[in-house]
Every structure is written in C-alpha cells, then in structure tokens.
Amino acid sequence: MGAAFRDRQAAGAVLADRLRLYAGRSGTVVLGLARGGVPVAAEVAARLGAPLDVLVVRKLGVPWAPEVAFGALGPHGVRVLNDDIASRLEPGQIAEVTRAEEAERARREARFRRDRPPLDLAGHTVIIVDDGLATGATARAAVVVARRLGAERVVLAVPVGSTQACEEIAAVVDDLVCPLCLADFGSVSRYYHDFHQVTDGEVGAVLAAAGWADRASRMPPGIAPRGSQ
Fold first, then answer.
1. Cβ distance 192 to 158 under 8 Å?
2. For 8-56+119-218, CATH number?
C-alpha cells in the first residue's frame, strides 16, 4: 500500500479522532515517546484538550543490525527484553548496547525535561503515543514505566503497527488504538509521505509550543499544560 499519512501531525489528527471518548476527561495525560512520537502526541493532546508530556524510551538494537530490537530501556531502571532475540546475543553484547543506550536516554531525558519534576502518573489515564509500532519493544517499556509510576489506565495509540506487535501489546494495555494494523508491515516509514528524523530541536520546539516554556510551573508535578490550536 502507499503512504497513509502526510506527516506525523496528520497521523496525530487521525488518532485524535479515534480517541474522542477521552476528550475533556479530567486526569488524562498524553505522553509522546521521544523523539518521533512527540509531534504525533502534540496533535493528539491539542485536539483532546489534554496535557502533554514526554517519555524517553530507547530501543536496544542488535549490534550488527541496530534496526532490529532485542529490547528497550525507560526511566527508573526499566528494561524490557525480547527473549527470542536477546537469547541469541552474548551477555557482554547486551551489556555494551545497554550502557550506550542508557547514556543516550539519560542525555535526552535531561535535555527534554530540563528542570521539570519527574513524571507522576498516579491515578491518571495515560495515553502513550508513538509514530508507529514495529516490534513493540519501546511501547512495552513505556507501558511498564507508566504502570510503575502509578497510572490507573494505560492506552497505547499509534497510527500504524504490525499485526503481531499489536496483538502482543494489546495484552498489556487497557486500550489499544491503531487505525492500521497490518500483517505485511515492513517499516513505519513506508506509511508516511514525510518521515524525516525528528531532532532534539524539533522536540524542544513542539514542547515549547505546547506551553512548557512559560506555563509549566503552574501545573501539577510532572504534567505539562495542554497545547493550543
């Protein structure tokens, strides 16, 4: 099939339409997975009238094929492994990749969150948003983080995903919203006309546009103000 979405913002608009039942609900927060999920999440948050926050999760890639995930890392020491793939690696290889990716995860966490307090999701409905679901490794790590931080309900929302990953992640979330679940998946990029690599600067700009720069201090700990249309 051809590209389904013009760009990440357009994909976010499609997701927001599927998430209308969460619009205006008190206690709902939208988490964008950095980096590619943040522009999608910003559109969702703005259209639902929900606060936007960011979650930094890093994929753990096979050393000789980094695009193949054997797991993922999140804050608070969360590590999720895909045993089918991780079992083929030596412990030293896993440790080396984990060290490198944790350093990068911590760098991005410091840059994106800056002086904001840590996430506090206790009692919240959390909508985790990414730009696609290939293996599901990063999404599973994000779900573990949200549960560990006290989320009452966890929703995963992605514009497109592989059938296998959708089936696996559906078993660990309270709700999965994915307009396109496909068996012949390929890669996330094939479903977008514009799938450029999102930069740190772009994430910062999206968060600033959502009001982080000037209104964050007036929000409850760990929750950013809603974006404006």
1. no
2. 3.40.50.2020
2-41: burial string, b at 16+ Cβ within 10 Å, e else: eebbebbebbbbbbbeebeebeeeeebbbbbbbbbbbbbb
Residue 203's nearest CA partner among 93, 92, 114 is 114
- How far apart, in whole angstroms, are the C-alpha atoms of residue 126 and residue 27? 8
> At residue 40, what are phi and psi to the nearest 5 degrees?
-65, -45
Three-class SS state of 160:
strand
Full-model pTM: 0.85
Q: What share of the chain is helix, strand, coil (3-state, %, to 5)?
A: 40, 25, 35
- Half-sphere exposure of residue 24: CA atoms within 13 angstroms, side-chain side: 2
Structure tokens at 42: 């910003």
Q: What is the mean pLDDT of each run of 10 residues along the chain (229 residues)?
A: 87 97 94 96 96 92 89 87 91 96 92 81 96 91 91 97 95 97 92 96 91 45 38
d(CA 67, CA 61): 6
Beta strands (DSSP E) in the chain are: 28-34, 52-56, 58-62, 65-73, 79-81, 125-129, 153-157, 160-162, 175-177, 180-182
Tokens standing for 137? 């490794």
Upper half-sphere CA count for residue 77 (Cβ side, 13 Å): 1
